[in-house]
Amino acid sequence: MAETMLEMAIVLILFAILFGVIRLVLGKTVVDRVVAIDMLTVTSIALIALYAQVSGRFVFIDVALVYGLLSFLSVLAIARFMERGL
Amino acid sequence: MLELLVALVCASILVSGVLAVCLKNLMAAMVSSGLASLFAALVFLLLAAPDVAMAEAAIGSGLATFIFLYAIRKTGYDKG
């Protein structure tokens, strides 16, 4: 049961990455692309946590933590830059 | 399943890199290059190198994005 749930989650994450990249390619404005990148980062964090559970290496959770913190900072910097300059 | 995921993320790196080269808007190109770096960190992690992934995420996403933003701002190419 748990294995089936993990496999379904991996398939859903795969589709999320696919649609996020499609949005990134088609994005009309910069804001579309920034939001697509934010969504892809959250998807990546979910993938890292899932992989830590599947492979049993729980050091990957720390990497997910750093990843989330840095991507948040990056999106924040881009948003601030677009609003009024760095 | 893992091979499929790694292949998909590598394809995403490729798409992001091509976008970063081809886009005319510098902000969008910078965002795309940051995404390529983030996905590279993800591939490093999936290939069982968490320390390399952490360094790549810190430098590629954090430092490079800030430096590119600062450079675009200083050179004034963000106006159009």
Overall description:
- The complex is a heterodimer of chains A (86) and B (80).
- Chain A has 86 residues and is an all-alpha fold.
- Chain A is built from 3 helices and no strands.
- Chain A has helices at 2-26, 30-55, 60-84.
- The mean pLDDT of chain A is 86.
- Chain B has 80 residues and is mainly alpha-helical.
- In chain B, 85% of the residues lie in helices and 0% in strands.
- Chain B is built from 3 helices and no strands.
- Chain B has helices spanning 2-22, 26-46, 50-75.
- In chain B, helix 1 (2-22) runs antiparallel to helix 2 and helix 2 packs antiparallel against helix 3 (50-75).
- The chains are: A mainly alpha (86), B mainly alpha (80).
- The interface between A and B is large, with 37 and 36 residues.
Proportion of helical residues of chain B: over 70%
Number of domains of chain A: 1
Number of strands of chain B: 0
Q: Return the string of H and E elements of chain A.
A: HHH
Instruction: Provide the residue-averaged pLDDT of chain B.
Output: 85
Low-confidence stretches of chain B: none
Q: Which word captures the global form of chain A? A: flat
What class, by secondary structure content of chain B?
mainly alpha
Number of helices of chain B: 3
Number of structural units classed as domains of chain B: 1
The protein's oligomeric status is heterodimer
What composes the largest sheet of chain B? none
User: Can you count the beta strands of chain A?
Assistant: 0
Per DSSP, the total helix count of chain A is 3
So what's the overall shape of chain B?
flat
Query: What is the distance, rounded to the nearest whole angstrom, between the alpha carbons of the first and last residues of chain B?
Result: 44 Å
Query: Which topology of chain A does CATH recognise?
Result: Helix Hairpins
